[in-house]
Specification:
Elements: E1 15-20, E2 24-30, E3 38-44, E4 46-49, E5 55-58, H1 67-74, E6 77-80, H2 92-95, H3 110-132, H4 136-143, E7 148-153, H5 159-171, H6 179-182, E8 185-189, H7 190-201, E9 213-219, E10 224-231, E11 246-248, E12 253-255, H8 259-273, H9 283-297, E13 305-308, E14 321-322, E15 325-328, H10 330-354, E16 359-365, H11 372-382, E17 388-390, H12 399-410, E18 413-417, E19 421-429, H13 435-438, E20 444-446, E21 452-462, E22 467-469, E23 474-482, E24 490-498, E25 515-524, H14 532-535, E26 536-539, E27 542-554, E28 561-568, E29 571-576, E30 578-580
Parallel strand pairs: 1-7, 7-8, 9-16, 11-18, 16-17
Antiparallel strand pairs: 1-2, 2-3, 4-5, 4-6, 9-10, 10-11, 10-12, 13-15, 14-15, 18-22, 19-21, 19-24, 20-21, 23-27, 24-25, 25-30, 26-27, 27-28, 28-29
Helix pairs in contact: 3-4, 3-5, 7-12, 8-9, 8-10, 10-11
Length: 590
C-alpha cells in the first residue's frame, strides 16, 4: 500500500517470506520502517542428492555450468517439482499426475526435501542481508532469533499440508518446536498473496470502483490458482480505510495446469515422434531445451517452431532434425498449451457463476503468465465475454513472494469463502416415520440413555460457498456419553469435509467417496473428574456420564482454528483445542 501506517512497535523486527514454487522460488523480507520490500527472485527449485541422502547442490548452484556432468559422474540424484508431491491426494485433478512426477530419492520424504530447501533459502536470506545492509552481520545476529516467517502455498493446500510445511520449517531451523515458535510462522494462499502484489503493481486505478471485483489468476510452474475478490463495503474493525479491506467473493480454485505440464505434454508428443529415431536417447536433452527456449518464445501457431539441442552434425531429415534442430509445427506446440488455456478460461467462468459480487477484471500473474501465448489466448477467449484481462509488466516470478510480505504488513483480506461443506458425522434420534431413517435401520443402536439413535448423519457446520469473516464462529451442539467419568476426560472428534455436488449432504452412505476426513480435534477435559456429579445420568444400564459440548470452528483465517465449549453450573467454559492432521488422513475415504 502506498499509504501504509507508520510502524508503531517498540523494537525492530525481521519478517521473511518464502515462496517455494514448483520450478522457481522467491524470497522477500522487510524490516519495519523500511519503505521497500527487498529480496531475490528466480531461485531454481532444484536439489541434487548423493546416494547417501546428502545435499550436494541446491538452488542456483544446482543449475551452474558443469553441474549436470558432475552429477552424472558421481551418481547424484536430481530432485525437482517436489512441491507437487505434497498436494492433497484427495484432489481428483491431481491424482493422475503421480506417475508423471520425478520420484523422490529413496529414503527421502517430501518434508525432508522441503526442509533442505528451506534451509538453503534461509542461508540465502542471511547472506543477502549480511552483505547488503550496513552492519548486516550484527543486524542478522540481533533479529534472526525472533524472525517471523510467511510461507505461501497453492489455494488447494489445506491444513494437512500446512502442518507438514510447519514441520519442515522446524526441521530446517527456522522456528523451534514450541508454541511461541509456531506463532512466528504464518501461511497465505498464493491467490491471496497475488492479490496483495497486484494491489501495488498490477491493477489499473479504476479497476475496483463501484463495487466491481477482480479475479487473480496465479499461473505458476505447477498449479494455476484462481481467486476472486472485491472491496469490502463494511468499515474495517479498528478503523482504517475501506479501500484497503477486501473480501473473497467465490470459492478459490487450484488446478494442476502450470507450465511444467506444457513440458510434460511436449515429452509425450516427442517420445512418440522419436520412437524409431536414433535421437530417442536425447529425449531428456530435447525436452530440457524446449523448456528453456521454445516454450518461452512461442507466440504463433502459424509459424514453425524449433528446438535447438545438438550440433550442426546432428541430422535426421525423416524426423525433421537438421543441423541440431528439431522442427515442430506451431499447431502441435499450441496443443501442448491447450489444457492450461482451457483450464484458466473455464475457471474464470466458474468464478463468475459462483461469485457473490460481479467482477470484470482478470489479472494474470506468476511465472507462467509471462507466456505471451497463454496471455493472448486467455484474453482472446474472455474479452468477448466482457472481461478485461491484464498482467503486471514486471517481476511476474516474484509476485507471490512480494505479495506474501504485503499480506503480513497490510492484511487486506478479512473475509474468505468456504471451498467445501464442513461438518461432523453424528448420531440422531431414530424417527420410524422418516423414510431416510427406515432405509438405515441397520445403522441404529440404543444409547446409554435408552434412546434409539441412527448413526452417520452428517451435521453441517459450514456450508460450501459461504462468506466467512475472520472472527465469525461456526458451531454445532453435540454430546458425548460414557459409562465412566475417566473415559470423559479427553474429547477427540473428527471434522470432515464434503467435496461433492450435493447442496445439503446428509448421510455418509450417499456419495460416500466425496467425504474426506479433514482433521481430528482433541481437548483435555481431565478437570471434569471433579464435576462428575454434574454430568451423572441414570439410564437403562445404570449410571453414565454425559457432556454437552459445542464445537466452534473459525474458518475465516488462513489457518483453521478450533475451540471446545461446554457449560459448568450454567456458565460457558472454553478451551482451545488441538488440531491434529495425520498425513495418512489425506485421501482416506469414509
Amino acid at each position: 500500500m502506498k499509504d501504509r501506517a507508520t510502524y508503531g512497535g517498540f523494537g525492530r523486527k525481521l519478517v521473511i517470506a518464502f515462496d517455494i514454487g514448483t520450478t522457481f522460488s522467491g524470497i522477500s523480507y522487510r524490516f519495519p520502517a523500511q519503505e521497500q520490500i527487498n529480496g531475490s527472485s528466480k531461485i531454481p527449485t532444484v536439489l541434487y542428492y548423493s546416494t547417501d541422502g546428502k545435499v550436494r547442490a541446491v538452488g542456483a548452484e544446482a543449475m551452474s555450468e558443469g553441474i549436470y556432468e558432475q552429477a552424472e559422474d558421481e551418481g547424484w540424484i536430481k530432485v525437482e517439482w517436489f512441491k507437487l508431491h505434497l498436494r492433497p491426494l484427495n484432489d481428483s485433478s491431481g491424482a493422475a499426475i503421480t506417475t508423471q512426477l520425478p520420484p523422490l530419492p529413496q529414503g527421502k520424504t517430501v518434508i525432508g526435501v522441503y526442509s533442505d530447501f528451506m534451509e538453503y533459502l534461509h542461508k540465502c536470506a542471511k547472506s543477502y542481508i549480511e552483505q547488503t545492509h550496513p552492519n548486516g552481520v550484527d543486524l542478522w545476529k540481533a533479529l534472526a532469533p525472533k524472525a517471523e516467517y510467511v510461507l505461501s502455498h497453492p489455494n488447494g493446500w489445506e491444513g494437512s499440508q500446512q502442518s507438514q510445511m510447519r514441520r519442515a520449517a522446524i526441521t530446517a531451523g527456522l522456528i523451534p518446536e514450541t508454541q511461541a515458535g509456531h506463532d512466528r510462522l504464518y501461511f497465505v494462499t498464493e491467490g491471496e498473496a497475488s492479490l496483495h502484489y497486484s494491489l501495488e503493481n498490477g491493477l489499473p486505478a479504476n479497476s475496483l470502483q463501484q463495487g466491481d471485483g477482480v479475479v487473480i489468476v496465479d499461473a505458476g510452474g505447477g498449479t494455476v490458482d484462481i481467486s476472486a475478490y472485491a472491496q469490502s463495503t463494511e468499515t474495517p474493525a479498528g478503523g482504517g480505510s475501506m479501500s484497503h479491506v477486501f473480501e473473497e467473493i467465490a470459492p478459490p480454485q487450484c488446478h494442476f495446469h502450470g507450465s511444467v505440464f506444457v513440458s510434460l505434454h511436449a515429452r509425450v508428443f516427442l517420445s512418440n515422434l522419436l520412437a524409431d529415431s536414433a535421437f530417442i536417447d536425447d529425449l531428456d536433452t530435447i525436452v530440457r531445451c524446449f523448456d528453456k527456449t521454445t516454450k518461452l518464445r512461442f507466440r504463433s501457431q502459424n509459424d514453425p517452431q524449433f528446438i535447438k539441442f545438438g550440433s550442426t552434425r546432428d541430422n535426421e531429415p525423416e524426423s525433421n532434425i537438421r543441423y541440431g534442430q528439431l522442427k515442430l509445427s506451431g499447431h502441435d506446440v499450441a496443443q501442448f498449451f491447450e489444457p492450461s488455456v482451457t483450464c484458466v478460461v473455464n475457471a474464470v467462468r466458474e468464478q463468475r457463476r459462483n461469485a457473490h459480487k460481479p467482477f470484470s477484471h482478470v489479472v494474470l500473474v506468476g511465472g507462467f503468465a509471462s507466456s505471451d501465448w497463454l496471455y493472448d489466448n486467455v484474453r482472446e477467449h474472455l474479452e468477448p465475454e466482457g472481461f478485461s484481462v491484464i498482467r503486471p509488466e514486471n517481476h511476474l516470478n516474484k509476485a507471490v513472494a512480494d505479495g506474501a510480505m504485503s499480506f503480513y504488513i497490510d492484511h487486506c483480506v478479512r473475509t474468505r469463502v468456504s471451498k467445501f461443506t464442513y461438518g461432523q458425522f453424528s448420531n440422531t434420534k431414530f424417527d420410524p416415520h422418516n423414510a431416510e431413517h427406515q432405509r438405515r435401520t441397520h445403522d441404529t443402536y440404543v444409547s446409554l440413555s435408552g434412546q434409539k439413535n441412527i448413526r452417520n448423519n452428517f451435521s453441517i457446520i459450514l456450508p460450501k460457498n459461504t462468506q466467512v469473516s475472520e472472527t465469525k464462529e461456526f458451531s454445532k451442539d453435540f454430546h458425548i456419553s460414557r459409562k465412566t467419568i475417566d473415559k470423559l476426560t479427553t474429547a477427540n472428534v473428527n471434522v470432515w469435509c464434503y467435496r461433492g455436488q450435493l447442496v445439503t449432504p446428509q448421510w455418509k452412505d450417499v456419495d460416500r467417496e466425496n467425504y474426506a476426513k479433514l482433521c481430528s480435534i482433541e481437548v483435555d477435559l481431565s478437570h471434569l473428574r471433579s464435576k462428575a456429579e454434574q454430568l451423572k445420568k441414570i439410564g437403562p444400564e445404570g449410571v453414565y456420564y454425559r457432556l454437552h459440548y459445542k464445537l466452534i470452528l473459525l474458518f475465516g483465517l488462513s489457518e483453521l482454528k478450533a475451540v471446545f465449549s461446554w457449560k459448568e453450573n450454567g456458565v460457558e467454559k472454553r478451551s482451545p483445542a488441538k488440531i491434529i492432521y495425520d498425513p495418512e488422513d489425506v485421501g482416506v475415504r469414509a
